[in-house]
Amino acid sequence: LPWQCFRALCCKGPPPPRPEYDLVCIGLTGSGKTSLLSQLCSESPENIVATTGFSIKAVPFQNAILNVKELGGADNIRKYWSRYYQGSQGVIFVLDSASSEDDLETARNELHSALQHPQLCTLPFLILANHQDKPAARSIQEV
Hints:
Blueprint: H1 2-10, E1 20-26, H2 33-40, E2 54-60, E3 65-71, H3 75-78, E4 90-96, H4 101-116, E5 125-130
Parallel strand pairs: 1-3, 1-4, 4-5
Antiparallel strand pairs: 2-3
């Protein structure tokens, strides 16, 4: 019986590869993009700093791997977002639901721009209204 167990474990071969999907994660600075990806990767939430260019994280799930390209959300970086859209298979747009009216309007404009971009307009979008735990958070309907 031990030989059969050993043989079953060793002779099975490697597990089949999980499919990989390339996503782009965008949103204004402070919306929570880095925190979201750190949480999905089971990383410590301490010492998170704003992304000043872009970063790539492989987010493993049981049946797939998401390769998420997170793009910094500062004014001077947003104009370059479209350079990183090629090859994306989906979009995560993160917004701070507790932000000022001006920032919310800027986020709305950036979202509409992304929704109309030729490389993204046919892709699935996840719009995440982050910071719902803050007192100033708007409801989904308000956002």
